[in-house]
Specification:
Catalytic activity (chains A, B): (R)-methylmalonyl-CoA = (S)-methylmalonyl-CoA
CATH superfamily of chain A: 2,3-Dihydroxybiphenyl 1,2-Dioxygenase, domain 1
Distance between the termini of chain A: 12 Å
GO molecular function, one term (chains A, B): metal ion binding
Oligomer: homodimer
CATH class of chain A: Alpha Beta
Keywords (chains A, B): Cobalt, Isomerase, Metal-binding
Structural class of chain A: alpha+beta
Order of helices and strands of chain A: EHEEEEHEHEEE
Protein name (chains A, B): methylmalonyl-CoA epimerase
Largest interface: A-B, 40 and 40 residues
Organism (chains A, B): Methyloceanibacter stevinii
CATH topology of chain A: 2,3-Dihydroxybiphenyl 1,2-Dioxygenase, domain 1
CATH architecture of chain A: Roll
Number of helices of chain A: 3
Chain lengths: 134, 134
């Protein structure tokens, strides 16, 4: 079912400082900052030859990553995103096998303009898994 | 400096159960279990089209991941590994810029038989970063 690792998302307390670490210290190619108001985050993508790292900063007062930052004030790896060919087929197969989809179970449009779902960490080795339709 | 994302490592409380989740529920290709006694872990690699996920289980009494599992009993993402062309050059450049290398600062031979270093999470957005010579 799962295909490419689309990205690893890292929540950071200071997006500009984190971007500088990746750009200047680690010498990576970084995208411009982009506000994602419908997701309550500001993003920077680290472009690696085979995949991406998504740096996530808080945007607004109701950011879904605020609680994570309270628990992890220095930041940390927040989720891992795998591509699937068909998000509805993936959802139906996973729920049939007893895995829990977060929210109302309907795909949302993610940061890349494609349908995404999040799976319950307890069902996937303690890690928050995002599925994105490739 | 950094190149490909070599792998994302996930520490799990039950390696066989985690392997089954990736193989059976997520439909991924998984490697056989392999003991890494010199690292105190047992590994399974999830082979994705563009990179790998490394599942890490405890091996022996002094496993370096035991404390992580105590803090995260369901498991969780432990580190992220980037490839570098020259590990000594990478180390020297990073330490010159003030980044901290864990341990004695000398590369060790990692799970893939290549020289690796670990960088201090506080210097890298709260994430444990492994560098592996490509």
């Amino acid at each position: 079912m799962i295909g490419r690792l689309n990205h690893v998302a890292i929540v950071v307390p200071d997006l500009a400082a984190a971007t500088a670490v990746y750009r200047d210290t680690l010498g990576a190619t970084v995208s411009p900052e982009e506000d994602q108001p419908e997701h309550g985050v500001r993003t920077v993508f680290i472009e690696l030859p085979n995949t991406k790292v998504e740096l996530l900063g808080v945007l607004g007062d109701n950011s879904p990553i605020a609680a994570f930052l309270e628990r992890n004030p220095s930041g940390g790896i927040h989720h891992i995103c795998y591509e699937v060919p068909d998000i509805m087929e993936a959802r139906d197969q996973l729920t049939k096998e007893g895995a829990r989809v977060l929210g109302d179970g309907e795909p949302k449009i993610g940061a890349h303009g494609k349908p995404v779902l999040f799976l319950h960490p307890k069902d996937f080795c303690g890690t928050l898994v995002e599925l994105e339709e490739a």
